[in-house]
Amino acid sequence: MDRRAIGVFDSGLGGLTAVKKLMEVMPREDIIYFGDTGRVPYGGRSRETIIKYAGQDIEFLRKFNIKAVVAACGTVSTNGLEEISGGFDFPVMGVLGPAASAAARMTKTGRIGIIGTAASIRSGAYERRLMELLPGCRIFSRACPLLVPVIEEGRIRKGDRLLSLVADEYLSYFDDKDIDTLIMGCTHYPIIADTIAERLGGVNLIDPGGETAKELSGFLRERGLLTDSEKGSCRFYVSDSVEGFAEKADIFLQQRIEGQVSRVSIDEL
Ligand code: DGL
Asked: Against a cut of 0.85, is the pTM above it?
């Protein structure tokens, strides 16, 4: 038994897709979330900058008594996470492996789509992992750089005009690709899963944060590291305005988190 918390981080709101699933699969665990909202988005940045930010994010979470960290960010998970994750005395789990494994399991036709930030798609990491898992599969990738800013702006409701326009611009790429599975390779995207599902119709959608939450649960269980507490709690830290974050997070998590959010200074990271 281990009562230490699970740390989760992302550049902004995206990691909440992992938090939501973590709360579902391990409701007794304490969660500490860090959203680097002062520096979002990460997806247009260089690999060096992404690695630097990710290292600072993990260092911030390390100050709490944590037993594991989820890098709930596709951009970080595909851009050098493995280079820094070994330097900590707790496991750091990214979303790449769990999402790719789920896609390989789910596809019937072997035709898989990937959407992600520019940095994630440029890295080719999802393709490499899928090719190892399912040699011969056909992969179609599309970077969607404007989706994260649209989501961070809170334009997440199905039918929102701006969201529909931007989603259509990117997802029309798949119209003639005949994919049966799509990896939503950025953790922000499951927030708009209903819009994506409607536009693509009948395609299996892979939620990277959700898959990672399930994998972490198994990992902790096997090692006897689950908590024996009655009920878990959640604390949220952001590097920019608390209000803006809490408002959007409430909508997504379908619960009020206002009193549980604190601001930290980026200079302290
Ligand atoms: N949610 C993140 C991801 O999974 C980060 C998006 C961004 O900051 O550009 O890629």
From this structure: yes
